[in-house]
Amino acid sequence: MKNILLISVLILASTGNSFSQDYLGLSSGNYGGIQSVMLQPANVADSRYQFEVNLVSTSLSFHNNYVGLSRSFFTQNFFSFKGYDNFSDFKAKELRKDDYLRENVFVKANNRINFPSLLLTTGKNSGIALNIQSRTGISIENLNPLLAEQAYDEWGNASLYGQNYITDGLDINGLNWIEIGFTYGKVLLNNERHFLKAGVTAKYLGGVSSFYFNSDDLNVRADNDSMLYIQSPEIRYGHSATNISAGINSSFRPDASAFGFDMGLVYEFRGQIENFKFLKYDSDYNLKVAKRRDRNKYTFKVGVSLLDVGKFNFQSTPEARNFSINDQINLNTINTKNLKDLDAVIADHGTYTSGAKEFSVALPTAFSAQVDVHLYRGFYINGMMYKPVKAFNNNC
Known about the structure:
- By secondary structure, this protein is mainly beta.
- It has one domain (about 1-65, about 100-390).
- The protein is built from 6 helices and 22 strands.
- The strands form 4 sheets. It has a 16-stranded antiparallel beta sheet that branches. A two-stranded antiparallel sheet has the order 3-4.
- The longest helix has 13 residues, at about 1-15.
- The model is unreliable at about 1-20 (pLDDT under 50).
């Protein structure tokens, strides 16, 4: 039980809304292809590629405000996990925690796997893309820093024994889903110097698994390295039938289905468009002016997009219900390997208050703005803003 709690905190802490943008750098680059369409659907139109196939790719992001890796792990070990006796040895040598943190801890992890996908330019003014993905996001918000420190020390920090770790507003969420998206983009305006294109992605969403655990009034106290006292008048707790770590069930049917969308606009100012024109013969051997499709022609471009709009309705398992708790737990007698084991611990130490047969989970809806400025020849400067939109999931 100690190791499970520690690993949960550290993996998540090494790993905010709960999700962030994936494929940073690549997704906002000039030649991002399939990856750029996930950030800005309009990029499928007027693409530099006539045809692109992505066989498989993945993006993993994790961040927190409590624990980090030492510089030597990158400069001397070069990201290698070899040469450590065990996890405790790795933690002592390479992990660094913030001993002076006074604000609540947040920990977040995101993973996106792209399966075979394609982008196709369908004409001078349009393009399409098909994208198949598996996505996972896990987040912890408002974790008491003293509780985080005690968990990091594997409940062995004697200086913190007997202290109450008041954790108001603790919020833990996880979601794993698959999505199949079809993107269509079209050029709306091509007036020499002024260029505008738009795109939209329609998505089928398959919710594989989800869980939540949150409380407005949670009190935790460690009396020694094994005895943990937990008190809360109500903890809201629920999860889908499939564990977040187990993958899709044996029937290959998701626990929930829904539809969603992305949409975006891109404006380009082409101040030096004359530099990209050339003469060529048409099919009737008449000479005409054409523009190079293989080059970026903008002086600067600005894009805006609304991403991941959608919501799942999961059926909660009967064993996962809201509960109150006022009890001591001996960590040495508990071994939790999955959510079902956690359900059994709650049943032994808590009192059920209510149970929802269904719960809603919104996708990590976000607004993004992108700016790209051409400096000189092959040099560009790029900036991107990615902000969660709470209005889409306040009621979930």
